[in-house]
Amino acid sequence: MNNIWWETKGEGNCHLVLLHGWGLNAQVWDCIVPQLSSQFTLHLVDLPGYGRSSGFSAMTLQEMAERVLAQAPQRAIWLGWSLGGLVASKIALLAPERVCGLVTVASSPCFSAMDEWPGIKPDVLAGFQQQLSEDFQRTVERFLALQTMGTDTARQDARQLKQAVLSLPMPSPEVLNGGLEILKTEDLREALVGLDIPFLRLYGRLDGLVPRKIVATLDACWPQSQSLIFPKAAHAPFISHPEDFCSALMNFNNFGR
């Protein structure tokens, strides 16, 4: 069976698995690895079909979660950014005994806007899917630019994300389209209500993809979870505010013990 790319760094007692977002790879974490590796044993993963985990076709959320879980340590804190937050959440639902803490970053249990639920308009996601077939590199770059808009360091942050993408082979249009399909269709709001695991949700106040309106709604739906909003961050708070981000993570680790 084809293995996904996996790298372990650091020597902390607690294992921390980091799952990246759509179109990207584990190099997005480079800016926080030095700070976290003294506290955690870090597991850096390229999701199936992304970065160095080539040779995979598009997967459903469940298939992706099962594939990642197959190579994971027996127990760990799982941190997922954006699409990676859905994967980490699905893993917590499939194998709660293997998850000692769940952290979602700029993520939503349901990325699509529907009824009263704020999110990305379905036609925007459909537009990205259409553009992928025409010029997928430009579509990915446009999506990256959306993730940093509004922050003081937007241009620099977008450059850092773009560098992570361009440093490795691009995912295939099929894999990218599969990821957009997950963002468009998955809804874990009800499933996560009863999750009995320490759960931290991190958001950027300026995020244009995950509206901050969902934070209070999820605080009420999921009273067992904690939330934290970085006031000057957008969709990639670990890049724009690495020190604050690492502090929040270390505080959560201490709380979860």
Automatic annotation (TrEMBL):
GO biological process: biotin biosynthetic process
Listed pathway(s): Cofactor biosynthesis; biotin biosynthesis
The entry's keywords: Biotin biosynthesis, Cytoplasm, Hydrolase, Serine esterase
EC number: 3.1.1.85
Catalytic machinery residues: 82 (nucleophile), 207, 235
A Pfam family it matches: Abhydrolase_1
Gene3D superfamilies referenced in this protein's UniProt entry, alphabetically: alpha/beta hydrolase (3.40.50.1820)
Binding site for substrate: 22, 82-83, 143-147, 235
Subcellular location: Cytoplasm
Any one cellular-component term (Gene Ontology): cytoplasm
GO molecular function per UniProt: pimelyl-[acyl-carrier protein] methyl ester esterase activity
Statement: the UniProt record of this protein carries the keyword Iron: no
Function noted in UniProt: The physiological role of BioH is to remove the methyl group introduced by BioC when the pimeloyl moiety is complete. It allows to synthesize pimeloyl-ACP via the fatty acid synthetic pathway through the hydrolysis of the ester bonds of pimeloyl-ACP esters.
Subunit structure: Monomer.
Protein family (similarity comment): Belongs to the AB hydrolase superfamily. Carboxylesterase BioH family.
NCBIfam families tied to this protein: bioH (TIGR01738), PRK10349.1 (NF007674)
Protein name as annotated: Pimeloyl-[acyl-carrier protein] methyl ester esterase
Annotated source species: Phytobacter ursingii
Species lineage: Bacteria, Pseudomonadati, Pseudomonadota, Gammaproteobacteria, Enterobacterales
Gene that produces this protein: bioH
